[in-house]
Amino acid sequence: MEKDIELILINISGLDKPGVTSALTEILAKYEADVLDIGQADIHHTLSLGILFKTDSDKSGNILKELLFKASELEVNIRFSPVPIEEYSNWVHRQGKNRYVITLLGRHISARQIASVTDVIARQGLNIDAIQRLTGRMPLEGMTEPKSKGCIEFSVRGNPRNYAEMQSEFMSLANDLEFDISLQKDTMYRRCRRLICFDMDSTLIETEVIDELAERAGVGDKVRAITERAMRGEIDFRESFKERVALLKGLDESVMREIAESLPMTEGVERLMTVLKRAGFKIAILSGGFTYFGNYLKHKFGIDYVYANELEIVDGKLTGRYVGEIVDGQRKAELLKLLAQVENVNIAQTIAVGDGANDLPMITVAGLGIAFHAKPKVKQTARQSISTIGIDGVLYFLGFKDSFISDPTDGNY
């Protein structure tokens, strides 16, 4: 005769301490129960543990009794809820729905930001399965630090009523409430990104090198004006590049070394590069700037590839001309695809990070495209953006936690 089965959900809460999960599951093991679902979280030393298990009806009474005694011994609260088999079957059926990861990032995280994001999630008909904090616990005095950061990741399930509308609402909220947000489909490829391509000027470094060269050549205002128009997408990049390089004619080659040695690094670059290398990423610079400075960063951080523009130098002086093909926006996208083939990775496993209009083609092509402290046109077009913190914010969009990526200088990974 087939035995009746029961599905029971237990919820445990109380002061977290070692051995709680072990002690409770040991009782379930004793009666050969099957665990159908389990989840645990620790918030400020307070445990929240849920276990859904299946057992024969003639064993359930003894299981619940022993669990109750054990919970009392451990000084935690326990609650039992029977789950109808039909309800469980419907829950299993819903597992096939799409999953998304929503990452909320900023200098600090406020209740208003969370409320606004979760309101959009609810109105789109999605259910939040899990919430986790990716950044370390923030001391009260650290919340006003200029380089503090907070990150919360939501795992949600379902089919949004209007994906494009949801994306648009998120970006609007991020702009109004001063935070960054990423909406990604939770696929196999999201979990195994392998190739990341960066713009250089105003992305990895906090300057446009061509402007620095122009200052030394005495044509800073002219070149800076052309650069700004090109980055905003108001003029063709190739033409602007030729005009700016021509203005550098006669500049001494030694100036490039002086500029390279004093390049202002973007906040978080060292941390980002160290973690990416240790995690096995291939890293490329795809820049409309110059190879001399790209190679300087390559040697400094162990970057794998550099594709940029080569200035022509004759007798130690810049000629005002360039050598080879211009690396413009379209070329960046082509190079990203080429590197993906060389490294034998799916395009969905690639990441592109940049700030200017000429970065949009590669940002659009990549599996994860991120506009970093970008010009308005770029930010409006990109699916993800970072505008509130340093470039190491990319790590949180990849799902890294601070507990895994502590300060690179301490060797604790």
SSE layout and pairing:
Blueprint: E1 5-15, H1 20-30, E2 34-43, E3 46-56, H2 57-74, E4 77-82, H3 85-93, E5 99-106, H4 111-123, E6 127-133, E7 150-157, H5 163-177, E8 180-185, E9 195-198, H6 209-217, H7 220-231, H8 237-246, H9 254-260, H10 269-278, E10 282-290, H11 291-301, E11 305-314, E12 317-323, H12 329-342, E13 350-354, H13 360-365, E14 368-372, H14 376-381, E15 384-386, H15 394-397
Parallel strand pairs: 9-10, 9-13, 10-11, 13-14, 14-15
Antiparallel strand pairs: 1-3, 1-4, 2-3, 5-7, 5-8, 6-7, 11-12
Helix pairs in contact: 1-2, 4-5, 6-7, 7-8
- Counting copies of identical and different chains, the oligomeric state is single chain
Kindly report the average pLDDT value: 91
Distance linking N and C termini: 55 Å
Number of strands: 15
Helix content: 25-40%
Strand order of the largest sheet: 12-11-10-9-13-14-15
Rounded to an integer in angstroms, the radius of gyration calculated over CA atoms is: 27 Å
Instruction: List the uncertain runs.
Output: 408-413
Shape: elongated
